[in-house]
Amino acid sequence: MALTTRRRALTTLGAALAGAVVLPGSQAWAGSSHRGRRPLWNAHAHNDYEHPRPLFDALDHRFGSVEADVFLVGDQLLIGHDSSELDPTRTLESLYLDPLAAIVQGNHGSVYRGWRRPLQLLVDIKTEGSSTYLELDRHLRRCPHLFTRYDHGRIHRGPVTAVISGDRAARIPMEAQHERLAFYDGRLTDLGSTAPASFISLISDNWTQVFTWSGDGTFPAAERRKLYGITAAAHVQGQQVRFWATPDAAGPARDALWTELLAAGVDYLNTDDLAGLEAFLDSHPTA
């Protein structure tokens, strides 16, 4: 299908269904069903594409952030955790960009109807970063009004904010752009650097390489101070914070760790258990 024809079809689809989205290979998702229920902005769907209904399962659980691993194969961005499991029908467009475009059209300019805060789309690059990002940039520019945009020092917020993670070579072409539709996922080594939040919007790192506590027993006071220091430093710069490799098995240890992360101001809780994190955050309404 030609690009302009596909855009026209998505626009017609969104307007006709008024919030209920049905795309080939997916089940219906109606954003209006969440009216009156706040999105869970702290919730990040780690390896979201591994769920039975990528994107839609996370939206059903009201998540504020989803993660997609991408491999550059030719000029296609294929979704998967490992190169051996790639499927040419599972592309960034088919699983994320096209559905999000239809949802935003149906919901009058937002992913969650009535909520203007953007959904975060974390794109984890698994192939060489520079070339993959340049192809990704071309894909994002097919839907320019879908994404938060950086334009010569100014940020124009859109329904979806794309953040680029994974292979660090992506940083080189990104920093050279004066106008882009994506932001960079930094590491703790970037905290306090000269790179502004208009470039590094998110600071992510491996919990187990920074902290020893896994939720059992008492959180060591020195580690708690370290965590609070990290979030404070990031927030002063206008950046958000996420840790991966946090304990994700249901139980008291996970709940204790999630509670400490929220108390410290960590912006995204990383999980593969969508229902578990939804239940936890619903029991912590001040999150």
TrEMBL record:
Source organism superkingdom: Bacteria
BP GO annotations: lipid metabolic process
A single GO molecular function term of this UniProt record: phosphoric diester hydrolase activity
Protein name per the record: Altered inheritance of mitochondria protein 6
